[in-house]
Write a structure and sequence with these properties.
Blueprint lengths: L3 H9 L3 H14 L14 H17 L18 E2 L8 H10 L2 H4 L3 E2 L9
Parallel strand pairs: 1-2
Length: 118
């Protein structure tokens, strides 16, 4: 069974196609997000992305996220989840200001419709 940290790693690699596919599989296989265990990883960025994604999925599926996500703080620096935000000023600003709240509070920047199908 796929783990949330695997999806987080793909998100951090900015591989949108694989991310969408893995997310769909994950949500199909994990109908109750609140039961998702905390990843046993040390990497702060992957742990923070895992928490942000679970909260985003929970928000979009009208569920509660796992309680451990509340203990995971923001990144020290903003991280843009789209490669193109590096050279497109308007997109960068959109991502910075309109990123879905679960991502934004942890300083992950994405467009407002990021993984909207979730």
């Amino acid at each position: 069974m796929m783990k949330i940290e695997e999806i987080a790693t793909v998100a951090l690699e900015r591989d949108g196609l694989q991310l969408r596919s893995l997310t769909q599989d994950y949500l199909r296989d994990n109908p109750s997000l609140v039961k998702t265990p905390r990843p046993e990883i040390i990497d702060e960025r992957t742990l923070s992305m895992s928490a942000a994604l679970l909260e985003l999925f929970a928000m979009r599926t009208n569920q509660l996220p796992p309680s451990w996500t509340a203990d995971i703080g923001p990144m020290k620096e903003a991280f843009f989840l789209l490669k193109s935000a590096a050279h497109m000023k308007r997109l960068r600003e959109l991502c910075r200001t309109e990123s879905p709240e679960p991502l934004r509070v942890r300083r992950f920047c994405a467009p407002p419709d990021y993984l909207a199908f979730a």
